[in-house]
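Protein Record: Sequence and Backbone Structure Tokens
======================================================
Scope: a single protein chain, as residues and as a discrete description of its fold.
Tokens: labelled as protein backbone structure tokens, with as many entries as the chain has residues.
Position: the record begins directly beneath this header, with no further notes in between.
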Amino acid sequence: MSGCATEQGLISVDQALDLILRETTTLKTEQLMLNQALHRYLAENVYSKINLPIFSQSAVDGYAICAQSSIEEDTEFELIGEIRAGQQAAVSLKAGQAVRIFTGAPIPAGATTVARQEIVHLSNSTCIKVEKNLSLDVDIRHAGEEITCGQLLAEQGQYLSVGAIASLSMAGIQTVEVFCYPKVAVVITGDEVAENIEDLASGKIFDANTPLIHAWFQQAGQSVDIIHVEDSAAAVKTLLQSLSEHYDLILSTGGISVGDYDFIRPAALDSGFQQIFWKVKQKPGKPMFFARQRREDGSHCYLLGLPGNPAAVYVGMQVYVSTLLFALQGQQQPHWITAILTHDLKPDERERFLRMSVTVDQATLKVTSLSKQQSHMLSNLMQANALVRVPAATAMHAGQIVKVLLIQG
């Protein structure tokens, strides 16, 4: 086999991902109020300090009843009071007695079941009649039946989604220890960006990378600083030296290959960054660069250089930037699943990331390749909801299983 796949120094996709995970040091942790911790990862286990429910309570609006056995239809009970949610159960029931009770209100002492108001007839202010047969222990939420005090609620590494925050909040958790989110600077290189339609006549092009990257981080609920830099060795070196002092990650697009105006890699090396890898045997996105610099305080600044072609940037964000952000927060790489390919694919000398459409057919995930896969094309992202890994030098056939990364945008 000949061509760029045999170029000296190329590493595989798996080797690149493994190097990112092995060579990246997890960031420090910080204490946050729970309502500020969305999209973060827990840095420690969280245990409940209370029972859930905290006390035994009614699951419905109705009547708490004291009975020694199952209640037969049309049995009457003496009504001696009322308990609302938020009130203490100040009464204690004896056999044959009942109290009006509302959802979430504490079950009073002596109560053995709850009758929904739909099956109860209020005879008068002091008497009720249960109009259907009723078993004991109905519609009572017992203290600690969901969670007991001291129970593990969430493990270190748990992603704090909306649901996770709601769950912890219900258990009375107010603060959490989380991994710090990295400070990220995005460096966009190139003098060819058009500001308006008129600029296109001079050979410039519209910038897709800046809005792509900004939207990608925005979707993750994170902010980044985006800086454009002119195509000059001095400007790139000065910028990298400045950013490396203040940011945990510098993400660049363009200027990473071997052209006359590709200054990112030499400027980084001149600025004290140590190369971890350069060039990956993949398509799109071969000239990828990963390096790090150790600062005087022992912390690191990482630099991930992506090629300038928009599709390569898109793949790089979904696969490599995700993996690096995970590693900085003590996590593993994004979760790949499997699906069935619906058509044949010709072999390529490099491993490919193809934009595809994933559908569900009779409980089976199936993926179909989209047209216009070249690295300068993005129009198929209107339909793409998955990236599919296609092995190098391998002809794929309909019905084969492939690795799939589901994407939201």
The chain has a mean pLDDT of 92. The longest strand covers residues 351-361. The two ends are 36 Å apart (CA to CA).
